[in-house]
Specification:
The strands form 9 sheets. The protein has an 8-stranded mixed sheet, sandwiched between helices. Strands 3, 4, 5, 6 and 7 form a 5-stranded antiparallel sheet that branches. The longest helix has 19 residues. Helix 2 packs across helix 3. The protein is α+β, with helices and mostly antiparallel strands. The protein has 10 helices and 39 strands. The radius of gyration is 25 Å and the shape is globular.
Length: about 700
């Protein structure tokens, strides 16, 4: 691989840069009024002086947002190398990105981004043609002038004649569904509105299933949404006539409901959940008129879904009595757990399966790194797929009749590469390899295991330029999540190349609360064990300092959503440990999170302040908003959020920033960057992503003492 010379405009993080402490000039923060709001929790009174910032529709809140952004962007504009960072990010981002192709009807479809397009464009070509003959099919960049309306999902009918796709405006979780004649691209019927947390699943060519909530009273961005419902929309009828399938009664009240039709159109599968973990599962035989729903499982203590069926034989993925997951089979006539038969048994590693070309592909996480085994429909092992290296794979999914499948491979130094896989021979070839301006051979990723506070061994992958001296001087970004059974597996970040190529270190810790080691690992970081997650993250930071990768004045911690909570809790518990804190779209008010949008569904991981006095005291004990102390010097902090975030509402970030500004001792800045027409992250246009990373990196390096780059 050739070595790429850095352009003159590239950032320098070398020893010749000024590494002295940067004494920040005192900032004058916008005045944030305090009110006398007090809540009582089990006879304990808790003040909430910034409650008024929860009203995202008020003029007062809008004025506060504008004032905070004026201060933040004024500060960022004064960082001399901010534009250099943006230029380099723009340069490295400008390469063609092609998605894996898929066939629907007479066409093969794929997505492509020329490099800096705000949204990827969908193309297609006839199945008997080549990709060179592809023509533009659907261009989301035309949905809005500024690129903030994005494609949020798409579903073709089995014959490929119709397409239903959803769009998100301004990053909101609320969606609209539009139906097209795939051949003519003419719209069919009305636009379906007010759709949220939903897939789109066709029943033949007649109509489709989707999920939503009743539109809440008050702000649609922050008001509580509590009862999810599954609907069926018949093509050619108005949305007012859509049939309510599940969720219309108190007995059917669930926070998350989804419906999907099996590939052979025989069964409707309905999953209903009260929280983000555990679900009830039902099936309905669509081949029989007036058939009733049959419970596959009617409890909520496990996660269960149907991955495939072969006639009436169901293949079910479950963690019931198998915390690392397994696949079982059962006949649809009596699908309850007592009749399940192991198909791919549980192993010591976490299973994430897919199906395609008449095979099952069992992906296992082995210390957060992928392994893949291929099985036939009798459960016999066909082969272990030899992967391109140590990293993460995705894909291996497709229709039963597909003659070829595609998978992606990536790690922290390898851009996501797509391979075309022959399921009969087990051979594969490169389909698309990004031509990115980054010398992957110059960098290394190393997995280490460190010891947390209670003795638990935690894996962490550390990525940096080869040959660096461990002298404690390197600017280091420590990233974590630790929740909701979500696993952080190795993946390439275009933005992080700018950090890495100039001497920065990037470290990702696989904390408890995640899914890297199955349900037991997840449950070790929830509710009254949530402190384990913060202890794991603190221990990761201490390891990086003790092993002289970095020092506390060159360490930044970063995380988003539940990871924003992680950063907020860590910086309030150990403000001495890091120089910079970067909480993004964070859950920061642990006493009230469940009162907004669908937040009550997170109670499996967090518990709520209304559960009992013990849970209330535990939450108050680590809630970032409630643990900011007067007179403490906190790290330089850049809070980031979006004004259309209706998953973790921006009030979390607003109140946290206001509290921190009022109590911060010393001169380290406390700023909040509020992106307009942006939500929790999905669908954010490329231009906004590049600018946000430039601002985050500039803020971080400037507060580590780098005056010039």
């Amino acid at each position: 691989m050739k070595h790429i010379l850095m352009p003159v405009a590239a950032v320098c993080l070398l020893a010749s840069c000024n590494e002295g402490e940067k004494n920040q000039a005192s900032l004058t923060y916008p005045e944030t009024k305090q009110v006398d709001t007090i809540d009582a929790y089990f006879d304990t009174e808790v003040k909430d002086p910034y409650r008024w910032l929860e009203n995202d529709r008020s003029d007062e809140t809008e004025e506060w947002v504008e004032a905070q952004n004026d201060l933040t962007f004024g500060y960022l504009e004064d960082i001399p190398y901010r534009n250099k960072l943006k230029e380099r990010l723009t340069q490295v981002w400008n390469y063609e990105k092609i998605g894996a192709p898929f066939k629907r009807g007479e066409y093969t479809y794929f997505s492509k981004n020329d490099g800096l397009q705000n949204q990827s464009v969908y193309y297609r070509y006839k199945n008997d043609e080549s990709i060179e003959e592809a023509k533009e099919f659907l261009n989301p960049n035309t949905f809005s002038e500024d690129g903030t309306t994005s494609m949020a999902g798409m579903s073709f009918t089995e014959d490929g004649e119709l397409l239903a796709y959803s769009i998100s405006e301004g990053g909101s979780d609320w969606r609209k569904i539009i139906v097209l004649d795939a051949e003519t691209k003419e719209q069919k019927g009305d636009t379906i509105v007010d759709v949220k947390f939903s897939g789109i699943s066709w029943k033949d060519n007649d109509g489709f299933y989707y999920s939503s909530y009743d539109k809440p009273e008050g702000s649609e961005l922050s008001a509580k949404t509590d009862q999810h419902k599954l609907y069926y929309h018949k093509l050619g009828t108005s949305q007012d006539e859509d049939l309510l399938i599940y969720g219309g009664t108190e007995e059917q009240k669930h926070r998350y409901v989804s419906g999907s039709v099996t590939e052979d159109s025989r069964y409707l599968i309905v999953s209903a959940s009260k929280s983000t973990s555990g679900n009830r599962l039902m099936i309905k035989d669509l081949s029989k008129s007036n058939s009733e729903f049959v419970d596959v499982i009617d409890t909520y203590d496990s996660d269960v879904y149907i991955i495939e069926n072969d006639g009436s034989k169901l293949f079910i993925v479950t963690d019931k009595e198998a915390p690392n997951r397994k696949i079982v089979t059962v006949d649809a006539s009596s699908p309850q757990p007592e009749n399940w038969v192991d198909f791919i048994p549980e192993t010591e590693n976490v299973l994430s399966p897919s199906t395609g070309s008449g095979y099952f592909f069992a992906e296992y996480m082995v210390d957060a790194v992928s392994q893949v085994k291929q099985y036939d429909y009798s459960g016999e092992l066909v082969r272990q797929v030899e992967l391109p290296g140590a990293g993460s794979v995705g894909g291996f999914g497709g229709k039963k009749e597909a003659e070829e499948l595609y998978f992606s491979f990536t790690n922290y130094t390898t851009p996501g590469t797509i391979y075309k896989y022959n399921p009969e021979s087990g051979t594969y070839e490169v389909y698309q390899k990004p031509a990115i301006d980054f010398d992957t051979e110059a960098y290394t990723s190393k997995q280490i295991f460190y010891t947390s506070k209670d003795g638990t061994k935690i894996p962490m992958i550390i990525t940096h330029k080869k040959g660096i001296e461990l002298d404690g001087t390197h600017p280091t970004m420590l990233y974590g999540y630790g929740g909701f059974n979500i696993s952080l597996t190795p993946s390439f970040s275009t933005a992080n190349t700018v950090w890495l190529e100039n001497g920065g270190i990037y470290a990702v810790a696989n904390l408890r609360g995640g899914g890297e080691y199955g349900k037991e690992w997840h449950n070790a970081g929830i509710k009254m064990k949530k402190q384990n997650v913060f202890d794991d993250f603190i221990a990761a930071a201490e390891y990086l300092i003790d092993e002289k990768y970095t020092s506390s004045n060159k360490l930044a911690i970063r995380g988003g959503s539940n990871g924003g909570l992680l950063v907020g809790a860590t910086m309030t518990q150990r403000p001495d440990l890091m120089q910079v804190a970067l909480p993004a779209v964070g859950v920061l008010d642990m006493l009230r999170y469940h009162t907004f949008t669908s937040g009550a569904g997170w109670a499996y991981d967090y518990g709520t302040s209304e559960d009992d006095p013990e849970m209330f005291e535990y939450l108050r004990g680590y809630s970032p908003l409630h643990n900011i102390n007067e007179g403490t010097e906190y790290p330089a902090t850049l809070v980031t959020t979006g004004d259309h975030d209706d998953r973790v509402v921006p009030a979390h970030s607003f109140k946290f920033a206001a509290e921190l500004q009022s109590k911060q001792a010393g001169d380290k800045p406390t700023l909040i960057r509020i992106e307009t027409d942006a939500g929790h992250g999905a669908g954010k246009p490329t231009s906004k992503i590049i600018q946000e990373y430039a601002d985050i990196f500039a803020f971080t390096l400037y507060n580590m003492g780098y005056e010039d780059l």
